[in-house]
């Protein structure tokens, strides 16, 4: 029986610094559990019903495996630049991020000239 086929697991002990949380209409807490294979791993205690679900079954119950996190393009761009920098290749800059958003005020002209001087 694979780890993914298991619905209920045996409670073993509390996990350090875990805080109960609400999801849907239930209250849950991550705990240490013993799987049928004898391995100690993470489980999810459900206060309603006083049962411990396997972590994989809990994720599938709430459809957490189907979520695709939204990642800001700028974060991906920065990661790519850092990766290229580490590999020694010259990085490309996104021209959209270099555009000024409006006219430069007289107080910022010196700072602006210092910023763009190296290009």
Kindly describe this structure.
There is one protein chain. The protein has 119 residues and is an alpha+beta fold. 29% of the residues lie in helices and 24% in strands. It has four helices and five strands. Strands 1, 2, 3, 4 and 5 form a five-stranded antiparallel β-sheet that branches. The mean pLDDT is 77.
Average pLDDT, to the nearest integer? Answer: 77
Radius of gyration: 25 Å
N-to-C order of helices and strands: EEEEEHHHH
What is the rounded distance between the termini? 62 Å
Please give the count of helices.
4
- The percent range for strand residues is 15-25%
DSSP E strands, number: 5
Q: Which secondary-structure class do the elements indicate? A: alpha+beta
Describe the sheet with the most strands: 5 strands, antiparallel
Question: What oligomeric state do these chains adopt?
Answer: single chain
Q: Flag low-confidence runs.
A: none
Determine the fraction of residues in helical runs and give it as a percent range: 25-40%
Overall 3D geometry? elongated
Condensed summary:
With 119 residues, the protein is an alpha+beta fold.
Structural topology:
Elements lengths: L9 E5 L6 E3 L2 E9 L5 E7 L4 E4 H7 L11 H15 L7 H4 L10 H8 L3
Antiparallel strand pairs: 1-3, 2-3, 3-4, 4-5
Features:
alpha+beta, 119 residues, 5-stranded antiparallel beta sheet
